[in-house]
């Protein structure tokens, strides 16, 4: 009897979810942490202006989370409809509920690649030349759910340094997002820190896209103050995800809008992506399987 009751309740919840999707009046965008809230809201303002007419909704709302996990939990709870994630953030969602969201698109770098790098930086005036100089020093990570700022360094650095990260460095910690991490490195809180960049273009410019580039463009970072000490293997560009239960027609309209955005509004495209990219390309779960497996083995869900 209990089993039948549970099945009935589940069916009613599914019907309620479908009805909600069909009558959606508000489209909710989650924005992961990493830079200050005012800049994130400004970057996504163009979506607030454009999407209502495209999707046929009354309003588009932005929800800037304090950290990565805020958006992850919003997507798992069904209170967000779309977000741009790092691969590790998506892996966390997938491991908790593989059916919560669908990865539909990712960015293509200006050189045609579909990836980016974890980049370890330190203050130039400290005189560090290589990873060997950092033994026994303090290393900062961006966010526990960041791919480039935590997962990938945790997995790939040991091969380079010959020891687990927490044994090689005297201390590790989190900077509270990519932007703040780099500021803490400049301040001297950390001897070095891991952030993200395209690896395309010039270091002095902060590369063509990524956290360093955004900070340079905002005038809060001078790349002459930093030196790059390590770069990871290529990381899959993070996915654009939509809530799986979202109405199919709305998914199609949204995806079509995004695919065309680099041509219809290059400024908006650049703003939400944080730098220069070529276009979007379609992706699915398989593209992120290596990161899902790495997260499961290293961090867990």
UniProtKB/TrEMBL annotation:
- In its UniProt record, which GO terms are filed under biological process? organic phosphonate transport; transmembrane transport
Q: Which InterPro entries match?
A: PhnD, Phosphnate-bd
What is any one of the record's Gene Ontology cellular component terms? ATP-binding cassette (ABC) transporter complex
Alphabetically ordered keywords of this record: Signal
Matches recorded under Pfam families: Phosphonate-bd
Q: Which residues form the signal peptide?
A: 1-21
Q: Which NCBIfam families does UniProt cross-reference here?
A: 3A0109s03R, PhnD
In the record, the note on similarity to other proteins reads:
Belongs to the phosphate/phosphite/phosphonate binding protein family.
Name of the protein described by the UniProt record: Phosphonate ABC transporter substrate-binding protein
This chain's source organism reads Rhizobium setariae
Q: Which gene encodes it?
A: phnD
């Amino acid at each position: 009897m209990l089993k039948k009751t549970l099945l009935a309740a589940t069916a009613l919840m599914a019907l309620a979810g479908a009805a909600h999707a069909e009558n959606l009046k508000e489209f909710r965008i989650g924005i992961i942490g990493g830079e200050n809230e005012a800049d994130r809201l400004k970057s996504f303002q163009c979506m607030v202006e454009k999407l209502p007419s495209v999707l046929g909704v009354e309003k588009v709302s932005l929800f800037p989370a304090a950290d990565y996990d805020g958006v992850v939990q919003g997507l798992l709870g069904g209170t967000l409809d779309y977000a741009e994630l790092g691969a590790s953030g998506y892996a966390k969602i997938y491991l908790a509920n593989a059916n919560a969201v669908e990865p539909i698109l990712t960015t293509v770098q200006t050189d045609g690649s579909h990836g980016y790098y974890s980049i370890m930086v330190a203050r130039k005036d400290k005189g560090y030349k290589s990873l060997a100089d950092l033994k026994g020093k303090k290393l900062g990570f961006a966010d526990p759910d960041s791919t480039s700022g935590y997962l990938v360094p945790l997995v790939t650095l040991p091969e380079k340094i010959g020891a687990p990260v927490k044994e090689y460095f005297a201390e590790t910690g989190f900077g509270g997002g990519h932007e703040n991490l780099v500021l803490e490195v400049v301040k001297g809180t950390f001897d070095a820190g891991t952030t993200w960049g395209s690896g395309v273009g010039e270091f002095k410019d902060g590369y063509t896209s990524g956290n360093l580039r955004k900070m340079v463009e905002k005038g809060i970072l001078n790349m002459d103050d930093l030196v790059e000490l390590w770069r990871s293997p290529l990381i899959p560009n993070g996915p654009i995800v939509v809530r799986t239960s979202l109405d199919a027609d709305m998914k199609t309209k949204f995806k079509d809008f995004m695919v065309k955005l680099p041509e219809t509004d290059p400024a908006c495209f650049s703003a939400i992506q944080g730098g220069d990219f070529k276009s979007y390309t379609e992706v699915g779960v398989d593209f992120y399987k290596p990161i899902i497996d790495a997260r499961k083995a290293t961090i867990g869900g």
